[in-house]
TrEMBL record:
It comes from Halococcus hamelinensis 100A6. NCBIfam families: PRK07231.1. GO terms for biological process: fatty acid elongation. This is Short-chain dehydrogenase/reductase SDR. PROSITE patterns: ADH_SHORT (PS00061).
Length: 257
C-alpha cells in the first residue's frame, strides 16, 4: 500500500506506446502521459505530425520517439513495437488510432467502407493489444492497456453504424482481455463523447447537426482533447491498480440521460 498523495498517478520510469499520437486526442494523451513521467513511443502514419508531437514532449522536458506505422499492417506494427523498446520494455499501450469516414443511412453504406473502419478501429487495436500482451507475457511483466473507444461504444449513434459497431466491439474486447489477462495486465476503455478535433470538423461545420448535438450534451459543448487525456493517465497509472474491464466515460453527460 503506498502513501496517500499524487504519487500513485505518476508514470515515472514507465514506457507508453500511444497509437494515433500524431494529432487530436492521441496527441493530447501522449503529451499528458509524458507530463506524468512516462517515456512515450508515438505511433501513427504521418511522420511529420509524429515528429511535432515528439518535439512538443521534448520541449516540455519529456522523452519521446516517433514510431511511424499503419495499425492495419502487421509488419509495420511489429517494427514499431521493436523501435519503441529503445525506450525500455513497454508498460502501457494506448490504442487511440481511429477513423470514421462514414456519416449516413446504413442502407447506403458499402461493405468496403464498413471493413475499412473495422480494420483500423477494431482489428488495428486488437493487433496492437496482442503484440503488447505477448511482449509483457514473454518478460513475465505487468502492464496496462487503455483502449480509446467512444460514447458510441456504449450507446447507439444514428448514421454512424460501422463506427459504433467497431467501438462496441472494442468495449467487448476490453472486457474480455481484462478477464483473460488479469492480474498481470489491466485493460480498460476510455469512452469520450464529442471532442474538438479534425475528426469532428465535419459535424461542427454543419450548423443544424452541431446544434442538435449540443442539445444532447448537458455541458453544452464539445470537449478539448486535454479534457479526455487526464483519464488516460489515471487508467494507465497505479491509481487505477484495482480497475480493469471498466469503460470510463468522459462525455459531458451525453450518455447520462
Ligand atoms: N473526436 C471525437 O469526438 C471522438 C469521440 C470519441 C472517440 N474518439 C476516438 O478517439 C480516437 C482519436 O480521435 P481524434 O478525434 O483524435 O481523431 P483524429 O484527430 O482524426 O486522429 C486520429 C488519429 O488516428 C491515427 N490513425 C488513423 N488511422 C490510422 C492507421 N491506419 N494507422 C495508424 N494511425 C492511424 C491518425 O494519424 P495518421 O493519420 O497520421 O495515421 C491520428 O493520429 C479515435 O479512436 C476516435 O474514434 C473521438
Amino acid at each position: 500500500m503506498s502513501e496517500p498523495g499524487l504519487d500513485r498517478f505518476s508514470l515515472d520510469g514507465r514506457v507508453a506506446l500511444v497509437t494515433g499520437a500524431s494529432r487530436g486526442i492521441g496527441e493530447a494523451i501522449a503529451v499528458e502521459l509524458a507530463a506524468a513521467g512516462a517515456s512515450v513511443a508515438a505511433l501513427a502514419r504521418s511522420e511529420d505530425d509524429l515528429d511535432a508531437t515528439v518535439e512538443r514532449i521534448e520541449s516540455a522536458g519529456g522523452e519521446a520517439i516517433a514510431c511511424p506505422a499503419d495499425v492495419t499492417d502487421e509488419e509495420e506494427v511489429t517494427v514499431a513495437f521493436d523501435a519503441a523498446e529503445a525506450l525500455g520494455p513497454v508498460d502501457v499501450l494506448v490504442n487511440d488510432a481511429g477513423t470514421n469516414p462514414f456519416f449516413g443511412d446504413a442502407r447506403d453504406l458499402d461493405i468496403e467502407t464498413w471493413e475499412r473502419i473495422l480494420s483500423v478501429n477494431l482489428t488495428g487495436a486488437f493487433r496492437c493489444a496482442a503484440a503488447f500482451g505477448r511482449r509483457v507475457g514473454e518478460r513475465e511483466g505487468t502492464g496496462a492497456v487503455v483502449n480509446v473507444a467512444s460514447v458510441g461504444g456504449v450507446v447507439g449513434l444514428p448514421y454512424q453504424t460501422p463506427y459504433v459497431a467497431s467501438k462496441h466491439a472494442m468495449v467487448g474486447m476490453t472486457r474480455t482481455l481484462a478477464v483473460e489477462w488479469a492480474p498481470e495486465i489491466r485493460v480498460n476503455a476510455l469512452a469520450p463523447g464529442y471532442v474538438e478535433t479534425a475528426f469532428t470538423a465535419g459535424v461542427r461545420e454543419n450548423d443544424s447537426i452541431y446544434e442538435d448535438l449540443l442539445d444532447e450534451i448537458p455541458q453544452d459543448r464539445f470537449a478539448d482533447p486535454e479534457e479526455v487525456a487526464g483519464a488516460a493517465v489515471y487508467l494507465a497509472s497505479d491509481a487505477a491498480s484495482y480497475t480493469t474491464g471498466e469503460v470510463h466515460v468522459v462525455d459531458g453527460g451525453y450518455a447520462a440521460h
